[in-house]
Amino acid sequence: MRIPMEQEAASFVSRLLDELASFGADDQGGVTRLLYTPEWLQAQLFLAERMKSLGMDVRFDRVGNLFGRLEGSSKEAPVILTGSHIDTVRSGGQYDGAYGIAAGIAAVTYLKDTYGQPVNTLEIVSFCEEEGSRFPLTYWGSGHMTGVYDWQSGGIVFDTDGISLQEAMEAAGFGKPEQEASTLENIGAFVEIHIEQGPVLERQRKRIGIVEAIVGQRRYVVTVRGETNHAGTTPMSMRHDALVGASEMVLQLEADALVSGEPLVATVGRIECIPNTPNVVPGEVSFTVDIRHIDETVITKFCENAIAKFNDIAKWRGLELTIVPWLEAKPAPMSRELSDKLERISNDLSLPYRRIVSGAGHDAQMFTAHCPTAMLFVPSKSGISHSPQEYTSPEELAEGVSVLAALLYELAYEGILP
Amino acid sequence: MRIPMEQEAASFVSRLLDELASFGADDQGGVTRLLYTPEWLQAQLFLAERMKSLGMDVRFDRVGNLFGRLEGSSKEAPVILTGSHIDTVRSGGQYDGAYGIAAGIAAVTYLKDTYGQPVNTLEIVSFCEEEGSRFPLTYWGSGHMTGVYDWQSGGIVFDTDGISLQEAMEAAGFGKPEQEASTLENIGAFVEIHIEQGPVLERQRKRIGIVEAIVGQRRYVVTVRGETNHAGTTPMSMRHDALVGASEMVLQLEADALVSGEPLVATVGRIECIPNTPNVVPGEVSFTVDIRHIDETVITKFCENAIAKFNDIAKWRGLELTIVPWLEAKPAPMSRELSDKLERISNDLSLPYRRIVSGAGHDAQMFTAHCPTAMLFVPSKSGISHSPQEYTSPEELAEGVSVLAALLYELAYEGILP
């Protein structure tokens, strides 16, 4: 295939990402598009319009995933799917998720304009949700498609305003029985392109990361209950301070993660204190724990150890402890055949690349058990992501589009599926 | 003097507190009377009516402090003042503050009915504000009387609705130049009775606490700034996690407070994390620090040491640190002579007592530099206060009234001032 004009791809993708970033833009230069909010809906409708104007058939499914379809000449040939997610963390950047959709649109448009109709149908998906930022639940979009979540199961999770996912979905116009459910039927391959969200490619001066596996994750909500007391009149020795107990657990977790070594990471990202008043000894603190590694046995052992130590800390401090697991994702290895193709393509395009592990979860991990799945990274400046400072240069964005387009060409035009 | 009939005093005080608790009663059984709200005003007007009906002259001063006056036979003899505050925290109990006013009314009424006119004028004060619950400011009432606050200075503090103290004061009918300002002129002594708000008296089976000093306090807001990063892709060794740094500071503070020993207390009551998202390494955490002790040099040394250690922790973790002091109250020692009188009276009344330190701030601390000041405590069930569960039995309330009445008798009828 002819390589997409880099200049053209660069300006196309960068422009599209800039336009997308206006939906949910905040005054810190960040983007906040939480699931089923007005900003989120506007972004999806904008993408639908854009894909339509580029000649694709568009549809929303029952949970709000958006598909743009370039019909292949063969009705029987499996669909080649590419895409990522449209939701963001609070005040995130403009590349995470959005780039995978914009790159898909750029690549499919380029292929259509250059080579006409493919043999296999090409579809670009904008998944409704991946981040878990509004509701304590991730991969709602790809999880719907891969059969992990029942579309009616959103009534049991709530955002901080007490609105259930089900209510939010219905308020945004989805969750109706008559709307089409997505399935994996006839999906031949899934390819996701994403920014690295880490510093490795940049530090090693690579332009393409070929993901070998996505780490497994476990997340917990830990709640520590002590005794709310007057900060002036309760001697130190008579306190059951939930925040001091939680602090000890946070430090213990960090120490254990350092001892365990790379690639294990353990993070307490969220903490809430009750009553959270300067002159009151905290009575209750809850915090999240996020553990990741590529080896599930390592994760299991680490988590068991952490929970045991948390219990010890709670016990000797006279605190009650509740630990609720709320996310468990197995490590997800990518298709070796597709990764080999990506390696060859990167070589052909003279792009420095490396095989890499993804420490972040991605929609791609929902597909690895079901169909050949590939994932590729472009560099992130300073490794920053989930932040308004997230940045990848237009040239790097375009290089990713070139590699993606070349792979989609082999899959959908040459019909070479693993 | 004849000891007040306990039965009578018990029912008088309990009934008055029950009546008062109806102003600002919430459905959790708590009381919320924030400064200058309708509930607050109704409570003050109720007290004014009640004191009037008991034969006292009543007046409001310019900021809304309420005084009930039993004129003494000597015009030159200094006024003996007793009382406490009428405002509460949000959903507080019915004893904090209110008991000091109710006990004053009970004691003065008893003295008047039993002994007639005193030599020194007796006054009961219901201070408008002590808690700092509506506005970020404490002791507005006693601070006005003792010259700490200019009555026109309320324009610079605001409640959460953006209403200034000045506006709220005027809306409640106060803050007019023609209204009388209170001063310390001719105040001979101040006596405050209060619930302990701590567990010491109850645990040691004492009925009366004779306060030797109110602790000094310092409060800080500590802000720790690190680097917001992706929780999956940022190796442990490359993180600048603000929450882990803050957790180490919280633990360090606790350890130092335990080493310093009683009566020092150090509390982190409030913590805020940014962006507070499960899968993001926290970039910024701020927390409050509250330090209390009766010896100012101990407080100063402890705070200097804590700040130095916080800086060390921030430095080796590559975090930025900002520490802003926002409250400093000096320790307030009570009058030794009045405390000795209270000790003798407690002995005479066969009430088990102990000298005690007040870890909480009280209106009395505003007077200690100006006139002989005394403070006494009655037990708080389980040490609970600032809560609907706050409780002191009618018998304990009445015992406090007896001790208070006996002291007021010595000061106002026998004219024995230190």
Automatic annotation (TrEMBL), chains A, B:
Sites where the protein binds allantoate: R219, N279, R292
Superkingdom assignment: Bacteria
Keyword Hydrolase attached: yes
Keyword hit for tRNA processing: no
Cofactor: Zn(2+)
Cofactor note: Binds 2 Zn(2+) ions per subunit.
GO terms of molecular function: hydrolase activity, acting on carbon-nitrogen (but not peptide) bonds, in linear amidines; metal ion binding
Domain Peptidase M20 dimerisation: 216-315
Annotated signal sequence range: none
Database matches in InterPro entries: Amidase_Cbmase (IPR010158), Bact_exopeptidase_dim_dom (IPR036264), Peptidase_M20 (IPR002933), Peptidase_M20_dimer (IPR011650)
Pfam family, one: Peptidase_M20
Protein name listed in UniProt: Allantoate deiminase
Organism: Paenibacillus catalpae
